[in-house]
Amino acid sequence: MYFELKENKPHGTKDDPFSTYHIENAGQSFQIPVHWHDEFEIIYVKSGFLTVNISGENYIGKPGDAFVVSPGNLHFMGSKTDTVDYFTFLFPLKYISFYTDDILDDRLLEPLDSGRLMISPSVKDTIKELCEQLIEIYKTKKSERELNIATQIKTKIILLQFILEMWEKGFIVENNTSGRNIVEKEMVSYIQQNFTGKISLREFGEQFHLSEKYISRYFKEHFHITLSQYVAYLRLEYAKQLLQDTDISVTEAAMRSGYQNISYFIRSFKKTYGVSPLKYRKKQVDCMQ
Questions:
Q1: What CATH number did the domain enclosing 25 receive?
Q2: I need a labelling partner for 190 at 20 to 30 A (CA). Which of 37, 90, 134, 169 fits?
Q3: What range defines the domain where residue 149 resides?
Q4: Nearest CA to 220 among 192, 242, 187, 250?
């Protein structure tokens, strides 16, 4: 399961803006690269140990722990060797807003949405029961053939209970991270805008007025991934999206994604996703039939 930075793809739909992602690895190391989005995100560790980095702060999540990513905060997560099973829940704050100019919207929901307030990243096991309820709703929605109004009502009730828990336990605080990560955001945004072309350490360093040696170390220290690995991630994700959403050839998808060597692209794709580009496309077509 991979995400983009800034995530341009929508989470959920107009009729159901609440999204749930279930990520489970089989004892292999992985890292979901740094990204950010406009939705709130709750990360809930079901089993194993998950490394989570939010706005430059590292946390280790154990079973039952939860973390909150406020809108706009850079974050990434991963594990070096452990078998990890975790869920992420994403929703725009307007999903639970009452659209009334009352004290709740004026003093809490709107400041949270605009970034003046935030929820402390590490809430540990304080919302374990609520997360388990959201998992049950996720399972129910997977078995439903169409959207269920009752299910949405239950989801909103749980999320409002989540906000209440955060308020009563003092986890809602003034946002002191709004001015942080500016350089990091500029770096990853630059890469996202230029990843289909050639990005060298020299060019990257010149863009940010830093030496090649320093920029390489800076990127690795802050994002726990090398610049070349991050570029490769974006290229493969883009190629995967092209294979899924268009009928262009594998060669064309590779070239549009920044690959000049098609054989290397096919090997990289298979190593990352476990199947060749053609088999991946066939699998997506079969799923829609």
A1: 2.60.120.810
A2: 90
A3: 19-174
A4: 187
* Most distant CA pair in the chain, distance: 60
As a whole number, the mean pLDDT across the chain is 86
8, pLDDT greater than 90: no
Question: Rounded mean pLDDT of 167-188?
Answer: 80
Q: Which residues 6+ apart lie within 8 Å of 187 measured at CB?
A: 204, 208, 219
Residue ranges of E strands in the chain: 19-24, 30-35, 40-47, 50-54, 57-61, 66-69, 75-79, 85-91, 117-119, 122-124, 172-174
Q: How far apart are CA 181 and CA 73, in angstroms?
A: 8
Eight-state DSSP code of residue 3:
-
> What span, in angstroms and rounded, lies between the C-alpha atoms of 127 and 178?
25
Per-residue pLDDT tens digits for 145-169: 777 889 999 999 999 999 999 999 9
pLDDT at 181 over 80: no
Strand partners of residue 124: 66
DSSP assignments along 56-111, one per residue = TEEEEE-TT-EEEE-TT--EEEEESS---EEEEEEE-GGGG-----SHHIIIIIHH
Residues 198, 168: one domain? no
Q: Please give the C-alpha separations between residue 191 and each of 82, 169, 210, 219, in angstroms, as whole numbers.
A: 30, 39, 15, 12
Tokens of 151: 């299910």
Residues 6+ apart with CB under 8 A from 262: 250, 251, 254, 255
pTM of the predicted protein model? 0.75
What is the tally of structural domains in the chain?
2
Give the torsion sign (CA, 239, 240, 241, 246).
positive
Find the CATH number of the domain harbouring 278: 1.10.10.60
- Closest of 152, 139, 118 to residue 18, by C-alpha: 152
